[in-house]
Batch of 3 targets.
Target 1
Amino acid sequence: MKKTTRRKFLQTTALASVAAAPVFASDNNKAKELFVHHVYFYLKNPGNEADRAKLIEGLEVLSKVPEIRMVHIGTPASTNRSVIERGYAVSWLLFFDNLEQEEIYQKHPIHLKFIEDYSHLWEKVIVYDSVGAKRG
C-alpha cells in the first residue's frame, strides 16, 4: 500500500469534492449551470521544452482571472489507445459558474494580454466548451 501524508490526503479530498460538486448538485443549486472550457494548445515547435514551459508560465498567470472557478494545466498523459489524441503540447481546463462568467473571462485584460504575449508559441488551438447535460 502506498503511504500518504495527512496533507496530501486533505488536498486530494478537497480537489475531489470540488470536482464532484456539480454531479451531486440539486436542481435548485447554481452548480448545475457549470460551464467547462477546455483548450488544447499545439506548439509551433512541438518538441521545444522551453516553449512548453513558457506557455505553462503564461497559463499560470492567466489562472488569476477571478471568474475562473477551477483550473487544471496539463500535458499529454502516457496512456496510449487508438482513441487518445496526444499531439497537443498543453491542455487548459477551466470551470466557470456559468456562460456569463466565461464571457467575462474572454474579455478580461489578463486573458487579452496572455494572447498578445504567448500566441507566437502556438500553431493551433482547439477549444471544447460544454455545459451540463440534462438528466432524467
Target 2
Amino acid sequence: MSVTSPERPARTKTKRVLLAAPRGYCAGVDRAVVAVEKALETYGAPVYVRKEIVHNKHVVETLRERGAIFVNETDEVPEGSRLVFSAHGVSPAVRASAVARSLDTIDATCPLVTKVHKEAVRFAKDDYDILLIGHTGHEEVEGTAGEAPEHVQIVNSPDEVDQVVVRDPDKVVWISQTTLSVDETMETVRRLREKFPSLQDPPSDDICYATQNRQVAVKKLAPECDLVIVVGSANSSNSVRLVEVALQAGATASYRVDRKVEIKDEWLEGVTTVGVTSGASVPEILVQDVITHLAEHGFGTVDEVRTATEDLMFSLPRELRAGLKAAGEEPKRPRREARKELPQA
C-alpha cells in the first residue's frame, strides 16, 4: 500500500536512511521477554506462556527454541505447571482458570496495561458505562473488557461511534488500548464527546509513552522519505499503526516487514531516502539487519532522527523475583535498555 502526498519537501539525491529514535523494545516488552528467559533459566523447560508473550515472530520463535511452550488457553497447560501471562494482560476469568488448574503463574502484564485494567474496575464500581477504544479480538482488549464485561463497550474506530448506546449519558467514560494510533483515538474521542457531552476522560493517558514516542519520531522523518520501512509483525498493533502514521505524515510509501528478506527490490526503485523504524516488541537485531540490507543496495548513509530519550524501566514480575530470591539469585531489573522518552527542548 502506498500513497502520494500532494506537497512534498525537496529530496536529496544521495541515497540515505533516516533511522527513527526511539524505536523497538519498550519497557513493558523488555520486562515480559526477560521474565520468560529468567523463568527458563531458573526453573528449566518447559515454561508455558499463554498467547504470544509479545507480538513478534522472532521473539516467540527464539523463546520456543529455548523451551517455552505457547498455548492459547489455560486448559492446554498440564495441572501444576508454570504459566506466564503475556505482556498484554488477562481477564479475571483467565486468572481463575489458572487457579483452578493449580498453575504456578508469573504475571508479565505490562504495568501500563495493568493501569488501564484498574481504571475499568474503578469506573465499573461507580456504575459508569465504559467505552473501551480498541480493536475487538486483541488480547489486551479482551483482558481489559473482562474486568467489567457488563459495563464495557468496545469502540473500534470513529465510524462506530454512531452505534454506541449508553444507559445514562451523564455517566460515561472512555479508556483505551495502549497501542493505538494517537490521532485516530483522539478523533474517536472527539466524536464520542459530540454525542455524549458529559463524557469523562481517564485519569491519565492510556496510550503508552512508547507507542506515542514511536509515532512522533515517524511523523518527523516521514515527510522526507520516499519509503518508510516498519519492522514488526502483522499482529503487532503498534507496528501496523506506524505504517499508517508514516503514510498520513507524508511518506510516499510505507511497508511493514518481519525481517529483511521481506523487503522487495521494487520498493527501492527510484528511492533516495528510506525511513526505518520498528514496533515496540521488536528486538534491535532485526532493525540492524534491515540497515545492512539497505546498505547493500546503496543506502550507506544512516542519519538518526531522534525526538525523545527513554529511561523507564520496570521491575521483573513479583512472582519471579520471589522465585529468584529463593533460588539464591539477586533479582535484577531487565537487562536491556528501556528508556522513557522525554521530549527534547
Target 3
Amino acid sequence: MSTACTLSFELPGGTVTEVAVTTLLNGGYAGRSQDDVAAHVQELAELGVPAPSVTPSLYPVAPYLAQQTTTVPVQHARTSGEAEWALVVTDDDVLLTVACDHTDRALEVHGVAWSKNASPDVLGRKAWRLSEVADRIDSIELTAWADGVEIQRGTLAELLTPAYWLDRLRELDLHKPGTVLLSGTIPMHHGVEQFASKWRVELRDPATGDVIDCGYEVTPLPAPIG
C-alpha cells in the first residue's frame, strides 16, 4: 500500500503542477548561525526537550502528512505551528513554497521525531520555481500569525539556504521527484502565546510583492472512549 499523497501547486503564469509525495523531511535546528542554534538547544533542554546529536538535524516524516488542508485535528491543547519554507522536487524542477510544521509540544519532550509525526506539515497551494527567486532568496520574508497575532517574522537569510538542503538531498540520494523538505523555523517573538486555534504563515517576495500563504484552524478531536 502506498503512503504517498498528491499535492497541487499553482505556479506563476497560472500553470498547475501535481506532485506525488514519496519522501517528507523536516529540517531542524537549521538557523544559519549555529551559535544561535546552540543557544536554542540549551533553551529547549531546560524545557525537557532532548538535544539533537547533530545540528542541523533532519527528521523523516510519513509522506501522507504533507497536506494542503484548512483543518488540523489535535488531541490536546499543547500543539503549535512553525513558520517554514518548503522545497518540492518535481519531475523537471524544484519549487519553493510556504509551510507550517504543526508540532505536538507535549510529545516533543519525549522525542522530536515523534512530535513531527503527530500532526501534518501544511503546505501552500501556490509555489515559485526556485530558479526564479534563487538570486534574492535571502530577502524573501517569512511571517506567521497565531489567532491573528504576529508570532514570527524574519527573512530566509536567517535559515540555511535551499542550496544547502539540495546538496544534502543529493548526498542522501533523495534529490528525486516526490521529495518534500521543510526548512526548519525562525525564532518566535518573546512572550507570545503559541497554543492557538488559528495559524497563518506567508512568504513574501519584496521584489515583486508576490505572496504565498497557508492557513488552517486547529480543531480538538473528541475525547477517547475507553
